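Sanity check

After download, print the first record. It should look like this:
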Amino acid sequence: MDSIDLDVLKTCEQWIAQGRPCQLVTVIRTWGSSPRPEGATLGLSGDGQVIGSVSGGCVEDDLIARVRAEGITHTRPEIVTYGITADEAHRFGLPCGGTIELAIEPLSAKSRIGELLAQLGRHQLVARRLDLATGDVTLGPASPGMSMQVSSAALTTVHGPRWRLLIIGAGQLSAFLAQIAIGMEYQVTVCDPREEYRSSWNVPGVDVVHAMPDDLVLEMRLDARSAVVALTHDPKLDDLALMEALKSPAFYVGAIGSRVNNARRRERLKLFDVSDEELARLHGPIGLYIGSKTPAEIAISILAELTAVKNGVQLPAEMQVEAAKHAAQQAQSAASCGITG
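Expected structure tokens:
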């Protein structure tokens, strides 16, 4: 889950422990354009303090005004809708035609927020089912592909580990990649057994681990919310880690290198009994072709490809580095030979 939604739960738990009336607001449906996705949350205390966001501003203002005027008086969840008409969409800052439906849940000890946070602290993926008639909550395991479910009887939300990114190598490119990934709400780990690289690392908010990368890949128990990017250019560090990562459920595995080095890497991995199916999951040369030259531009290229894979976007072949460079090379060769289309 995103760190902001985790902060919402933590703050709500503090309010409950302090005996302060509070409620949890969750985006359950959107139609048309909407500033925040389904599942986004907001915590609101009885005195109008707020954490999180469900719309980007104006809907929050209305929710706060209601609480300050009326207090938190309801004892069961309620469903409210904003932006049904064009006038309401304009009033609440929603894009034209946008509609947002919210579940507003009054919180108490029976909401089991503390238990949920404890399970999340153990890196578990949890389904939280809220009975919309009674407000009763049950917690249970969720599958990696499970998404939020809404019916007339219940709201089931999925909470779990944030998206994780393991970067192999603590070089300059890794620093840019880590900084951007943190801003995208990834939990970033950098692995490098080389002291000369780790000693100069200065990106806050990143776990830097002294270990052999393949050992750490196994230790991290990569799941479908995990990505691995190998950036050392050293086969002794990259290859074994890639082998283990390709056998894991990680949604993205990529490695930096030229087209020639990428081909050689694939041949080496075959010697490690990596199957053709597993090898097909390897992204390399890594990133999208955007003409990137500097470490910052290359980091953007990598995260653009990673994001597309994460979101299930099928990219055209010409956006892949290998295909794009091959096409450019052919065009240059044709131009040098005087061939025109």
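If your output differs, re-run the checksum step. Summary of this record's structure: Residues 246 and 281 are 7 Å apart (CA to CA).
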